[in-house]
Amino acid sequence: MKKITLLAAVFAAFAASAQTKLEGLSHPESVCSNGKFTFVSNLGEKVEPTKRDEDGFISKFDAKGAEVKKDFITGLNAPKGMALVKDVLYVADLDQIRGFKIKDGKEVFNLDLADLGSTYLNDIVMIDEQTLIVSATDIHKLIKVNLKTKKGEELSISKLPSMGCNGLAYDAEKKMLFVVGMGGKVTKGDDVEDILGEIGWINLAADPAKWAYKRIGKATGMFDGIAI
Predict the structure, then answer these.
(1) Where are the domains of the chain?
(2) Superfamily assignment of 24-135 in CATH?
(3) Interval 137-161 mean pLDDT
(4) 202, 198, 199: which is closest to 213 by C-alpha?
(5) Which end of the chain, N or C, is less surrounded by CB atoms within 10 Å?
(6) Containing H/E element for 208?
(7) Cα distance from N-terminal residue to C-terminal residue, the chain
(8) What distance lies between CA 117 and its chain's CA centroid?
(9) For residue range 56-85, what is the model confidence (pLDDT) as tens digits?
(10) C-alpha to C-alpha distance for 202 and 213, rounded to whole angstroms
(11) CA distance 196 to 163
(12) pLDDT for residue 13 is more than 50
């Protein structure tokens, strides 16, 4: 009986934690945390992920979910994925990667990647303290960003998810980059074909010239975020 009671107590505590609700957000898109603070990107008043309306913002919460500042970072367009590198929060915002100090929200980094052709930069992962990899969902590409040189370049990878590179996750120990696809529509003549998203990974420990995407399982869907 004691064992059953203990399990019930643990479950109750977990359930209470899992149901914590953060109020005052405006179409939240992504979440990023360093264990002390949690940052939430907000698209703004409407779900318009490609519009330059400057009503997007980042909210800051403490480890328990209490609001530190709802409009911690403002003036963004449609902020999506984020990554923390030391004391800087990097945010994908349409065709830019912007970086802000997590202490006061001051902007310290801005890289315009418009020349690569995407207006839907989506997720970000840190590979090391100098390198980020960003998904560009609309052009179905992965982009490597060098934080030191402030330059971005398309990664040359054999194949990729069926369509719409979206959520990213990185296992630094095994150097495995996980990628999920959103899928999309492809026009073939007079027909429009729906392509479903899938899940896969890239071994970054290999020679960059041999980097290739490998699918995991046969699951399909409209995949978005992914975490290890």
Answers:
(1) 24-135, 156-228
(2) TolB, C-terminal domain (2.120.10.30)
(3) 90
(4) 202
(5) N
(6) none
(7) 35
(8) 19
(9) 999 999 988 899 999 999 999 999 999 999
(10) 5
(11) 7
(12) no
